[in-house]
Amino acid sequence: MPTEIIEVAEITCENIIRYAINSNKNFTFDKLKKAYLKLKSMSQFMKILGEKKIKITANRKNLSPNDLLLVCKEVLNSLDTKVKDIMFAKNIFAPLQSKKYP
């Protein structure tokens, strides 16, 4: 079987990408907005996900919808660490409000 490096969007459709995102509780818009400060919509995030390059060893014509969903979930899992790290860091290093003393 051939090995190719392709974009996720080349092998799957929007519905499968959306299903993969909805399957992971860490990918709500509020959480993603904290990790990707310039993110304006879920559609924009789906485009970002679709542009991710992956190395796949398979015949594209033989990939089932379940195979495509697995590919999307694996890409999301690679991003999940970044989202968690950024959110965790923000929670730890959030500035404390100082009390004003008279």
Question: Which labels suit this protein?
Answer:
single chain, 102 residues, mainly alpha, 5 helices, elongated
Description:
The protein is mainly α and 102 residues long. The chain has one domain. The chain is built from 5 helices and 2 strands, in the order βααααβα. The protein has helices at residues 8-11, 14-22, 29-35, 42-51, 65-92; strands at residues 3-7, 53-57. A two-stranded antiparallel ribbon has the order 1-2. α2 packs across α5 and α3 (29-35) packs across α5 (65-92). The radius of gyration is 18 Å and the shape is elongated. It starts with a strand and ends in a 10-residue tail after the last helix.
- Shape estimate: elongated
Number of helices: 5
What is the number of beta strands? 2
Average pLDDT for all residues? 76
Strand fraction equals 5-15%
Tell me the span between the first and last alpha carbons: 75 Å
Which residues form runs of ≥5 with pLDDT under 50? 87-96
Helical content class = 55-70%
In terms of topology, how is this protein built?
Blueprint: E1 3-7, H1 8-11, H2 14-22, H3 29-35, H4 42-51, E2 53-57, H5 65-92
Antiparallel strand pairs: 1-2
Helix pairs in contact: 2-5, 3-5
Please provide a brief summary of the model:
The chain is mainly α and about 100 residues long. About 55% of the residues lie in helices and about 10% in strands. It has one domain.
